[in-house]
């Protein structure tokens, strides 16, 4: 984001003793400046939806639709589902930023978010999140089906209420159970095509559920000091590195098993089957190597948690790309 240093300085000047924004909804100046360009306003609201996270959600939704259809679904159905999914995830993310703006102001990774810098007033962010959530539910209900709409609404509530409001600041298992919300797009994609949810969709759900901890905990390890100062009990903050590494190995093993179970139950072909085996072996090796480094007392750059974080994104992306290609390749 442009002007990061300026925004950071402004954010500091508005923080109270707890590190949160002061002055309530009127405590920000930049949000109401008449000289702001329309493009800067749009960029701020787009940032509020966390588009990089949504990209990952959509890359799991579309391949799931291909598998459910056994080929290429209606282009209109794909577009309607993707737009509805983006609006739902964007609304949930905006509400998450509204509720977390106090701790976001204390963390280096998040202190440039629009509700911290004052680019968007908190009240406007809240309204934006609520409107997106309502529009997404109606959009999916009318243009896709009401089961997909109900699943999207459930995902919003799981992320905003179950994760953000209840789990995040209270338990080190926050990202495990709170990660359920991030698994919902595969159910939405499957139901968009079939109008129901099958065991194959449940297994795809399980893949993402078990993938989430080894994906997020390396990031939490890198920013553990930030989380500690903000009072968020991520597992790497409250547990030893060996405990975290052991949990990562366990979740990775369950993730790989779930991905392999899709081969017979989802009637997938060789493209997905070979990819699931090779990608599972590759990512499993990286997690085991990470655990080995932990046991040897490595830290910082030698531990390299972000390599596991980025590898996890590559793993999930390639696995679902293979899932999308598989219905079109037959031997």
UniProtKB/TrEMBL annotation:
Annotated TM spans: 53-70, 76-99, 120-140, 146-167, 174-193, 199-217, 244-263, 269-288, 308-325
Q: Which InterPro entries match?
A: Protohaem_IX_farnesylTrfase, UbiA_prenyltransferase, UbiA_prenylTrfase_CS, UbiA_sf
* Domain of life from the UniProt record: Bacteria
| Compartments (UniProt record) | Cell membrane
What membrane topology does this protein have? Multi-pass membrane protein
User: Mind listing the UniProt keywords for this protein, alphabetically?
Assistant: Cell membrane, Heme biosynthesis, Membrane, Transferase, Transmembrane, Transmembrane helix
Q: Which pathway is recorded for this entry?
A: Porphyrin-containing compound metabolism; heme O biosynthesis; heme O from protoheme: step 1/1
- State the CDD domains in the record: PT_UbiA_Cox10
Main localization (coarse): membrane
Q: What is its EC number?
A: 2.5.1.141
Q: Which reaction does it catalyse?
A: heme b + (2E,6E)-farnesyl diphosphate + H2O = Fe(II)-heme o + diphosphate
Record PROSITE patterns: UBIA
Task: Show the segment(s) annotated as Disordered.
Answer: 1-35
Please state what class of enzyme this protein is.
Answer: transferase
Q: Basic and acidic residues bias located where? A: 1-18
Q: Which family does it belong to?
A: Belongs to the UbiA prenyltransferase family. Protoheme IX farnesyltransferase subfamily.
The protein's job, in short, is:
Converts heme B (protoheme IX) to heme O by substitution of the vinyl group on carbon 2 of heme B porphyrin ring with a hydroxyethyl farnesyl side group.
Miscellaneous remark of the record? Carbon 2 of the heme B porphyrin ring is defined according to the Fischer nomenclature.
What protein does this entry describe? Protoheme IX farnesyltransferase
Q: What organism, scientifically named, is this protein from?
A: Brachybacterium epidermidis
Q: Which gene encodes it?
A: ctaB
């Amino acid at each position: 984001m442009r002007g990061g240093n300026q925004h950071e300085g402004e954010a500091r000047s508005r923080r109270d003793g707890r590190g949160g924004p002061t002055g309530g909804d009127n405590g920000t100046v930049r949000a109401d400046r008449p000289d702001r360009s329309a493009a800067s306003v749009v960029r701020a609201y787009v940032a509020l939806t966390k588009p990089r996270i949504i990209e990952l959600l959509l890359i799991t939704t579309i391949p799931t639709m291909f598998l459910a259809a056994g080929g290429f679904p209606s282009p209109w159905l794909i577009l309607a589902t993707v737009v509805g999914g983006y609006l739902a995830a964007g609304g949930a993310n905006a509400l998450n930023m509204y509720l977390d703006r106090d701790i976001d102001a204390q963390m280096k990774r998040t202190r440039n978010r629009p509700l911290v810098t004052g680019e968007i007033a908190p009240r406007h962010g809240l309204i934006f999140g609520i409107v997106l959530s309502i529009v997404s539910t109606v959009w999916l209900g009318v243009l896709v089906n009401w089961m997909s709409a109900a699943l999207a609404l459930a995902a919003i509530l799981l992320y905003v209420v179950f994760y953000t409001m209840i789990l995040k600041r209270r338990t080190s298992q926050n990202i495990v159970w709170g990660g359920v919300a991030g698994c919902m797009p595969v159910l939405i994609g499957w139901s968009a095509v079939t109008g129901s949810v099958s065991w194959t969709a449940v297994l795809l759900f399980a893949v993402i559920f078990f993938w989430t901890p080894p994906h997020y905990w390396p990031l939490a390890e890198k920013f553990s000091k930030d989380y500690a100062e903000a009072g968020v009990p991520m597992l790497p903050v409250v547990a030893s590195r060996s405990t975290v590494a052991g949990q990562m190995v366990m979740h990775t093993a369950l993730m790989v098993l779930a991905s392999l179970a899709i081969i017979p139950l989802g009637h997938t072909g060789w493209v997905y089957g070979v990819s699931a085996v090779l990608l599972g072996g590759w990512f499993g090796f990286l997690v085991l190597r990470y655990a080995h480094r932990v046991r040897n007392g490595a830290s910082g750059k030698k531990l390299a948690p972000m390599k596991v974080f980025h590898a996890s994104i590559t793993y999930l992306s390639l696995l679902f790309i293979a899932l999308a290609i598989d219905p079109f390749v037959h031997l």
